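Subject: for your reference before the review

Hello V.,

The reviewers asked for a structural picture of the protein, and I figured it would be easier to keep everything in one thread rather than splitting it across files. Below is the amino acid sequence we used in the manuscript, unchanged from the supplementary table.
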Amino acid sequence: MFDLIFENATVIDGSGGQPYKADVGIAGPVIKAIGDLKKAEAARRVDVKGLTLCPGFIDVHSHADLAFFKEDHEKVLSPLLKQGITTFVGGNCGMALAPITKENRDGLKMYLEVFTQMDFEAAIKWDTMGSFMEHMDKKGVPLNTAMLVPHGLLRISAAGTETRLTTDSEVSYMKKR
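And here is what came back from the structure prediction:
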């Protein structure tokens, strides 16, 4: 038995093949069958004739991760899901919410407050990328998330907000983070 069957869908399955008409059966969070499911049992059926079902989209350049400090981040990010985005890559443009190091903390605070309008002292409950990801796991995240290394935060951690080349010791420091 399926929890949900989408009937009469135009399916684009991600294989590169042509779209085709089919029913799609869901059990829990998993697609269990694609094909003719007219005789299958389901708790709920939805006729999606004229609509297309396809794999979720990946937004490879997103700043959605900068909303994770907000209590209502799920609401803030819900338009992405409505667009079909199921995965995003954060940490783009050198921005992220972690790591937050003791070194040059004031620079990190200024940088993040300017871009996010956050109350840094109230919002930041982590220091490393690992503790940030644990925080996200506990709060729940509505999208799959991949994170790039935020070079901007690393540089500020090592060298502050000065506009100059970094020293060898500062580059070493960044490599360890």
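For the response letter, the relevant points are probably these. The mean pLDDT is 94. The radius of gyration is 22 Å.

Happy to draft the paragraph if you're swamped.

O.
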